[in-house]
TrEMBL record:
Pfam families noted in UniProt: FAD_binding_4, MurB_C
Keyword Hydrolase part of the UniProt annotation: no
Keywords carried by this UniProt record: Cell cycle, Cell division, Cell shape, Cell wall biogenesis/degradation, Cytoplasm, FAD, Flavoprotein, NADP, Oxidoreductase, Peptidoglycan synthesis
GO CC, alphabetical: cytosol
Source lineage: Bacteria, Pseudomonadati, Pseudomonadota, Gammaproteobacteria, Moraxellales
Reaction catalyzed: UDP-N-acetyl-alpha-D-muramate + NADP(+) = UDP-N-acetyl-3-O-(1-carboxyvinyl)-alpha-D-glucosamine + NADPH + H(+)
Domain FAD-binding PCMH-type residue range list: 17-187
Protein's recorded name: UDP-N-acetylenolpyruvoylglucosamine reductase
Primary subcellular site in the record, as a coarse category: cytoplasm
PANTHER family found in the cross-reference section: UDP-N-ACETYLENOLPYRUVOYLGLUCOSAMINE REDUCTASE
The protein's annotated pathway: Cell wall biogenesis; peptidoglycan biosynthesis
Length: 345
């Protein structure tokens, strides 16, 4: 393990922002994490944990130790007639892991194919797509707890998974995720309820075909970060009260919406942004993608400031038109490697 200085993070964040880390280390084991934390303590540096970089907004200079997660491996833990439990290193590429599960006939994650990022990030925002959330198949999450300075295992129940949320978002500086333990099914139970997925899958009700169709839908709507740097959905879909929805629906009867528990309604942020005139629109080098208005794209050498100018303009216009606040999904960092609020200037 080697600590490097002045490392360019552009290749390691999918929005391709120019960001230079004063200190950088790649960690491949829990021992590496401990050594890196000791170094940071001695040098009085904050630690920024970098996973796949597909959900973060980085400033141009970061005075901190950037810890790049690279713990590999898939371990068979336990099985019974119906399930297989697997413990997976946080540094495994998520999509490759999903393909691996399908090839080995372990089922559940097929709807989550092609989501960018690494396995270790999957519990943090409880990644979800096409009617499935990762939390449904996570049994526990193995962490290094920076408060107790011990390794521990957090059960799925204690992770408090909900829409794009978990305890790892509530206490972002505390836990370093080292492994994720999944309990997958040996017999496929296809989830085809989302949008036109059922139609896309057609007659071939195999998990392999479901996975293929999800990949196809994503490829037709969502930009490939290698071609158009992006962080997936830039905003969360807003969840509002039924009462507030009824008011808006009077004026906008076509508003796509999804009923939620507790008298709440989830709206499609992509539709709101589209209707506010932002689909395919840019300010300078940053704009909202022409095929999916919820995805912000860095078209050329944008800085964090350029990104913020664009997304604040989008928030402003959506609020003016619909009186709805959009909240960004990616995590924003300051120059000391600490998480900062999107509301800050
Ligand atoms: N829509 C528009 N215009 C647009 C985009 C969307 O009118 O430019 C409408 C669509 O026609 C549809 C509705 O908005 O009626 C929802 O669109 P879509 O099915 O594409 O899904 P989404 O709500 O925009 C969410 C997730 C995606 C996930 C898809 C599929 C969030 C924030 N985003 O997007 O997740 O892939 O559903 O499940 O929940 C991600 O988080 O990075 C991500 C891509």
């Amino acid at each position: 393990m080697q600590i490097q200085t002045q490392v360019q993070l552009k290749p390691f964040n999918t929005l391709s922002l120019d960001a230079v880390a004063s200190h950088y280390v790649r960690v491949q084991s829990v021992e590496d994490i401990q050594t890196a934390l000791d170094f940071a303590k001695a040098e009085q540096l904050n630690v920024l944990v970098l996973s796949g970089g597909s959900n973060m907004l980085l400033p141009e200079q970061i005075h901190a130790l950037v810890m790049h997660m690279d713990i590999q491996g898939i371990e068979y833990i336990q099985d019974d007639a119906a399930t297989q439990t697997l413990k997976v290193g946080a540094g495994q590429v998520w999509h490759d892991f999903v393909l691996w599960t399908t090839a080995h006939q372990f089922y559940g994650l097929q709807n989550l194919a092609l989501i960018p990022g690494l396995v270790g990030a999957s519990p943090v925002q409880n990644i979800g797509a096409y009617g499935v959330e990762a939390g449904e198949f996570i049994e526990s999450v193995q962490v290094y707890d920076r408060v107790t300075e011990q390794q521990s295992s957090i059960s799925a129940a204690d992770c408090h998974f909900s829409y794009r949320h978990s305890i790892f978002k509530d206490e972002p500086e505390r836990f370093i995720i080292t492994h994720v333990t999944f309990k997958l099914l040996k017999h496929a139970d296809l989830k085809l309820n989302y949008g036109d997925l059922k139609q896309a899958v057609g007659e071939d009700l195999s998990a392999e075909n479901l996975q293929q169709q999800v990949i196809h839908i994503r490829q037709t709507k969502l930009p490939d970060p290698k071609e158009f740097p992006n962080v997936g959905s830039f905003f969360k879909n807003p969840v509002i009260s039924q009462h507030a929805f009824d008011q808006i629906a009077l004026q906008f009867p076509n508003l796509p919406h999804y009923p939620q528990p507790n008298n709440a309604v989830k709206l499609a942020a992509g539709w709101l942004i589209d209707q506010a005139g932002w689909k395919g629109k840019s300010v300078g080098s940053v704009g909202m993608f022409h095929k999916q208005a919820l995805v912000l794209v860095n078209y050329q050498d944008a800085t964090l400031q350029d990104v913020r100018t664009t997304y604040k303009a989008v928030q402003h216009d959506v609020f003016e038109k619909f009186n709805i606040e959009l909240h960004p999904e990616p995590v924003l960092f300051d120059t000391n490697g600490l998480i900062r609020s999107h509301a800050d200037q």
